Structures are given as C-alpha cells and as structure tokens.
Amino acid sequence: MSDAFAYEWRRITTLRSTWWLSIGAVVLGVGLTFLVAMALRLSGAEMVAEAMSADDSLIVLEMLTTQFSNFDPMFYLVAYIVAIIGIFSWGHEYRHGMIRATLTAVPQRRAVWTAKYAVAAGWTATVVLVTCLLSFAVAALWLAGLGLDVDLPALAAAVVRRMGYTVLLTWVVMSLTVLVRNQTFALVVMYLWPMAIETVVKGIFTIPGLSEHRELTRFLPFNAGGRIMQREPSADAVFGDPLNAVGGLVVFGLFAAVLMVLALALFERRDA
Amino acid sequence: MAVIEARGLGKSYGGKPAVTDLSFDVRPGTVTGFLGPNGAGKSTTMRLMLGLDRGAGSTTFDGRPFDTIRQPMREVGALLEAKPFHPTRTARNHLRVLAAGHRIPDRRVDEVLGLVGLSEVARKKPSTFSMGMGQRLGLAAALLGDPHTLILDEPANGLDPQGIRWMRDLLKRLASEGRSVLVSSHLLSEMALMADELVVLGRGRLITHGPVAELTGRSAGNRVLVRTPQARELASLVGARLAGTGSVQATDDGEVSVTGLSAQEVGDLAFEHRIRVHGLTAQQASLEDVFLELTGGDEEFRARGAGHHEGGRA
C-alpha cells in the first residue's frame, strides 16, 4: 500500500494543474476575505462591532474565515475549485492513457484506488485549512481592535466542517470520473448538479400535488451536503427539515460512499 | 531468471472472441517474437498477461501472477502503447512518478534516460516528442527497474533505422544477459534478425510456437532450384524419390524447383543419373514466407484489390 501512496503522491505533485488549482483556490479565498474585511473596516464597522453579540461576532468571523459559505445558498467556492484536483486524479489516467502505466507500476487495483482517494482527500483538506487559516489571519488584522468576540473552538469546528465537506465533494466527483471515465463530464456534473439539477427538482416540488412532499428535497445530496456548513437556526434535528449538520453529513456521506463503492467495483472489473 | 507461462488466455469483446485459449511459454535468455496479422490479438494478449484487461486464463512470471508481485517494475518491464504519459509532465518527472512506487532513486531515472538517448530532452514535455521519442521514453520506463522480463508491444514503431538497430542490439544484449524478452512487431525483417523463438497468432488463436530456425526450416518456402537442360528428366527422377513427401516443378526454360530434398540430395541424384547441372541453389524461406504461410487467411482486416477477390467474382 505504501508503494501506491508514494506513486500517487509524486503523481499529483508533479502536475502543474495541482499547484495552480491549489494556489488559485487559496489566493481567491483569501483575496475575497481581504477585500470584504477591508470594506467592512473602511465603512465604519467600529459602530457595528460595538453593538455586536458574541453570536453575531462568530457569524462575521466564520463568514470571513470560510469564504461566506455559512449561508444557504452560498457555494463553498474553494471546495469547488480544489475538487477539480480529484477529477484530474482519475481523469488524466483515462484521458492520456496513463492508467496502463499506473497499473503496470502498481498492479494492485484496490491499493491504487485507496491511494488516490486518500491523497486527494489529504491534499484538498490541506488547501481548505490553509485558505481558512490565512483568511482568518487577514480578517483578524483588518478587524483588530473592534472588540469582536473570537470563539476559536467554534471557528475551528467551522473549518473542520469545510474540510469534511470538501473531502466528500472531492470523493463524489472522483467517483463520477471513474464511473464515466470522462473528466469533462465529471467537471460539468459537479457544477450542474447542485446549481441546476437540484434547483429544478426543488422547483418541481413547488407544483400543486407535489408541494406537500417538498420536504423530501432536503435529501437531495448536494442540498444535504451544504447543510454540513450552513448556519440554519431552525435545523434542530438530524433528519429534520432542514437537516442539521450531522444529517447533512450522513446524507452526503452516504451518497459519496455509494458512488465510491460503485467506482471501486467498476475499477476492479473493467479493462484498464 | 524468469519464465513466463501463459495458460488458457481468452478475451471477447461484445461476444466476438479476440483471444481464445492461448498458451505459450517464454524462456529466459531468449527474444521471443510475438507475430500475427492486424487484429490477431497480440496487444490484447499482452494486456491480459499483465492483468490490465480482464479475461480468462492466467499468466505467471516465475510462478507468480503479475498483480501479486510487489514492485513489479523491478521484475517485469512493459511497453504497451506509444505515448502513455501526461503531455505536460516532463519526461524525467514521468519516470520519477513510476520510480516513486518502487523507491527507485532519481539517479536510475537519469541513467535510463541516457540509455535510451533522451538525456537532452529529459526536462521537456513529451507533448513535443515525436513518436520515436515517445517509444524511447516508454522503453526507458520499461527498463527503469532493471527487470529480468520485458514485454514490449511494437517497440520499433516510429523509430528511425538507426533507432531500430539500436533497439534490436539492446534487446539482444538484454536477452543474452539471461532476461526473458517478449516483443511484438510487424517488422518481420527486424524480427528475423532479433528473435530466437516465435509465437504466431491468427484470429486470437495460437498457430505455432517454436524456435525461428525450426519454423523456417519446415517452411514450404525452403526449396532447391536447379538449372539443367534435362529439366523434365530430373523432375521425373526427383518425383520418384520424393514419393509424395515434397514437390517438384519443371519449367520449359530449364529450371526445376524442388521442396522436400536438400541441395546435396538433388545434386547427388543428378550425378547418379548423368544429368548435366548448370546451377544448384538452396533457397532459404524467409520469416516473411513463414509468416504468410502460417497466417494465410487469418487477417482480420483484408484490403480489396489485387490478389483478393470476393467469392464468385474472381
């Protein structure tokens, strides 16, 4: 197994796309935080901050640390950028015929599969962590002296939730890439599914006759995945409507797990 | 040194058999040529041997299936297709990726790049490489772990004449060191110069398997040509001697073509019967003769045109 990890680590780190996607995600995430934090400071945030409760302070700092992903329907942009690394980890194998070279170097398919998912998870989670830490630092600098209440454990938990969401998203799109062996398809689905398909499905459930079942749409996988991160005061039960963070993790996690198992089964059965 | 044992290999695509119950061995210290017409199943067989394609049968390398070998590039090197690399990763980094899974040091990467003549372009992207350079990089990958077994699918594709000669010498040298080398090629003249043994496929089935000398020795292309003013008389004598085990043909311009007897036997026969002989030539069958003889009618893709007519329209 360690051979497969060594192979995958060097494979991912010798691709320029890995670096520019990672650096791009960090720069974009931190840059966005920088601009908004600067705007807050320069627009007289002192007045606002003085009147802020601890909970409001946490909302502002979480928003700045996690690139505004704590409110529905904001997408966690960093996740949607770095997950492309996961798509490429399988997509390049099939697009450039590298899969045969890979499997003659490491013929144990399950080891190759495991290494790919683990390395991609580690890499994308690290990029999220770095982005959040730098964003927090930038926010802290701009908002220094405003008297905001900094709840570090709560902020750390928010960052961990983003890391978890990003890993699951990456695993989902990696699995889609294995299933169809086409990275362009996986890339399109990653954006189209949450932004268009689930929105259309939600729209359909507003039609009379279906509207009484509208609460079922909370189980749509990307909708559920978003609940891992989003703040929703009314989400007070795991599988309530809306789902709380744990419910979102269970639904999106199961969705990812099913796709991963299918991907493994096909990867082991198919010709390379 | 490794023996490759392929047993009962089989593979179908959409119900159409590509390889059927194929078994053969590759011995250490030999270059074994893998021959067959287009679509005969050579590439499929090589992929089956390495577990890349899923199908029937098994292949062992020193008694072990490929996918049970830890760090297999140290034991089996493979070149299966041209340009199997990411176009924007440098040639050196491509090899470093393969090396990483086997803890092979970077100095070995530089060594094999030098061996295949790619040192000067080591830090260039393979997307700029010609097909020949791509083949050299593929060969470098196959040699990376200094394996005792090599499986190479059409390695001469895209190489210039110097490159082909270099590759031939390299493979012969590697075999002479005791390694097992299985190499497919369409270049029969190259195979004739390089291969010690042959595995010949037709429509996914084994046609024959054995030493090159043995296969060419029993070809109908081996004949004795005699120039004599008494052609019909000699043909009649030879026919009586052969008694149906060979063939003899006489032409009006004084030439007799004999198969089934050696030049010495034909010469002695003419001398015994006081037949004047003006010329006696032993014609050795070429590998091409043998190949065409063995695979006649087994082409998967046959061009229409001279020599090939559809039934009833000839």
UniProtKB/TrEMBL annotation, chain A:
Does the keyword field hold rRNA processing? no
Lineage: superkingdom? Bacteria
Q: Which residues form a coiled coil?
A: none
| Keyword Transmembrane helix belongs to the record | yes
User: What keyword terms does UniProt attach to this protein?
Assistant: Membrane, Transmembrane, Transmembrane helix
Parts of the chain that traverse the membrane: 19-40, 73-91, 117-143, 163-180, 187-210, 245-267
Q: What is this protein called?
A: ABC transporter permease
Q: Give the organism the record lists.
A: Nocardioides donggukensis
